[in-house]
Amino acid sequence: MASPGSRLRRPPLVKALEAAGAIGGGRVEVLSGPPVYRAVVRSSGRPLEYTVAVAPSGRTVRAYSDDNGTLHRGYVGYPIIAVMMLAGLLPRDEGVEKALAGVNWYELNRKHRNYSKALEEVLTGLPPGLRTRAMTLARRVLEALDKLEVIYDPALARGEG
């Protein structure tokens, strides 16, 4: 569970592609920014919206999202990743975003209950060249995240900071 001021952990690889799919599917609405990027991210498979705020300052990024990965598992959830991508803090690939736009990540994750298997199913459905690009993007996103200190800051949700 994320506690205020704690560093969020590295997410599973699949979360980078889930973020790309959210962007490609038009499910990320940036409401303001900079200096604080505020957004609403809609779930792929159910009528649920996540509130997201990202405040970059050098290598440190204060962030908030009310998604399960961030709140309950303490890693950088896909809604935060998506907003960081749109803010230019993480790499993007528009071709991959478009290819993943229609993926129902919620159902895949529910079906497999294993992120690796969900990722395998998604990649299997892509043409080989795009499969390689998707994996390259996911690795690049995680490598970029490793160079940043993403701090959980619920005060951002209240409009503070």
| Count, helices | 7
User: Can you list the strand order of the major beta sheet?
Assistant: 1-2-3-4-5
Low-pLDDT parts are: none
Helix/strand structural class: alpha+beta
Shape: globular
User: What is the rounded Rg?
Assistant: 15 Å
Our count of domains comes out at 1
Distance between the termini: 22 Å
| Beta content | 15-25%
Number of strands: 5
Run of helices and strands: HEEEEHHHHHHE
The amount of helix comes to 40-55%
Biggest beta sheet summary? 5 strands, mixed
Average pLDDT for all residues:
94
What does this structure look like?
The chain is of the alpha+beta class. It has one domain. It has 7 helices and 5 strands. The chain has a 5-stranded mixed sheet with strand order 1-2-3-4-5, covered by helices on one side. A hairpin with a 6-residue loop joins strand 2 and strand 3. Helix 1 crosses helix 3, helix 1 packs across helix 7 and helix 5 crosses helix 6.
Which structural traits does this protein have?
161 residues; 7 helices; alpha+beta
SSE diagram, text form:
Blueprint (H helix, E strand, L loop, with lengths): L13 H11 L3 E5 L4 E6 L6 E9 L2 E6 L2 H6 L4 H9 L7 H6 L5 H8 L2 H10 L3 H19 L2 E4 L9
Parallel strand pairs: 4-5
Antiparallel strand pairs: 1-2, 2-3, 3-4
Summarize the structure in short.
This protein has helices at residues 14-24, 68-73, 78-86, 94-99, 105-112, 115-124, 128-146, and strands spanning 28-32, 37-42, 49-57, 60-65, 149-152. It is an alpha+beta fold and 161 residues long.
